C-alpha cells in the first residue's frame, strides 16, 4: 500500500546523546497534529531508539539508526526505527515473569509500553540474506478530522 503521506527519513548516530534531537525532530515533523498523539509517538520512539542502541550494533561508534514516518491512510501514523544489524535476536516482550518480577524489573519494559500505546507493532529483517538490521514499526490511531491540512505526499524534513 502506498502511503498517503511519507516524511523524508532521518538518520542518527548510535549515541544516546542524540535522543533529545530525535524527539525534537519528531515533534517538528508532526507539527499541527494533536499534541497528545505527538507525545505518545515521542515516548515510543524514545523506547525504540534506546533499544536499537542497547541490543544491536547501532550503539557502537559507527552505528546508525534510521527513523521513518508515514501515514498509510488518514487515520494512521506509522513510525519505524531501523538498526545497523548485529543484534542477538528479534525484538520481543519478555515472557514468564510473575507480577512481582514485573513490579521489580527496571528494564525490558519498552516494547510492552509500545504494545500498549500503539494500535499494533511488529518487526522485519532489513535483508533476508544477511544481518543488515531489523526494522521495528508501530502504528498509531490519528483522528482524520484533526490531521493538519496541507500535508503533501512527500514531506521534506530538513530544518
Automatic annotation (TrEMBL):
UniProt keyword list: ATP-binding, Kinase, Nucleotide-binding, Serine/threonine-protein kinase, Transferase
One function term, GO molecular function aspect: ATP binding
Record-annotated membrane-spanning stretches: none
Gene3D superfamilies xrefs: Histidine kinase-like ATPase, C-terminal domain (3.30.565.10)
Residues in Histidine kinase/HSP90-like ATPase domain copies: 24-119
Location of the region described as Disordered in the Swiss-Prot/TrEMBL record: 81-102
Top-level taxon in the UniProt lineage: Bacteria
InterPro entries reported for this sequence: Anti-sigma-factor_SerPK (IPR050267), HATPase_C_sf (IPR036890), HATPase_dom (IPR003594)
Matches recorded under PANTHER family: ANTI-SIGMA-F FACTOR RSBW, ANTI-SIGMA-F FACTOR RSBW-RELATED
Protein name per UniProt: ATP-binding protein
Organism of provenance: Streptomonospora nanhaiensis
Amino acid at each position: 500500500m502506498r502511503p498517503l503521506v511519507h516524511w523524508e527519513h532521518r538518520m542518527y548516530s548510535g549515541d544516546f546523546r542524540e535522543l533529545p534531537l530525535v524527539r525534537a525532530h519528531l515533534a517538528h515533523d508532526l507539527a499541527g497534529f494533536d499534541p497528545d498523539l505527538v507525545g505518545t509517538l515521542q515516548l515510543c520512539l524514545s523506547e525504540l531508539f534506546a533499544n536499537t542502541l542497547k541490543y544491536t550494533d547501532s550503539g557502537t561508534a559507527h552505528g546508525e539508526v534510521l527513523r521513518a514516518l508515514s501515514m498509510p491512510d488518514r487515520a494512521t501514523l506509522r513510525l519505524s526505527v531501523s538498526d545497523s544489524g548485529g543484534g542477538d535476536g528479534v525484538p520481543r516482550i519478555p515472557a514468564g515473569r510473575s507480577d512481582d518480577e514485573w513490579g521489580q524489573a527496571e528494564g525490558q519494559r519498552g516494547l510492552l509500553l509500545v504494545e500498549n500505546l500503539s494500535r499494533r507493532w511488529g518487526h522485519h529483517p532489513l535483508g533476508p540474506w544477511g544481518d543488515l538490521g531489523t526494522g521495528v514499526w508501530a502504528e498509531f490511531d490519528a483522528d482524520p478530522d484533526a490531521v493538519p491540512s496541507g500535508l503533501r505526499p512527500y514531506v521534506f524534513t530538513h530544518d
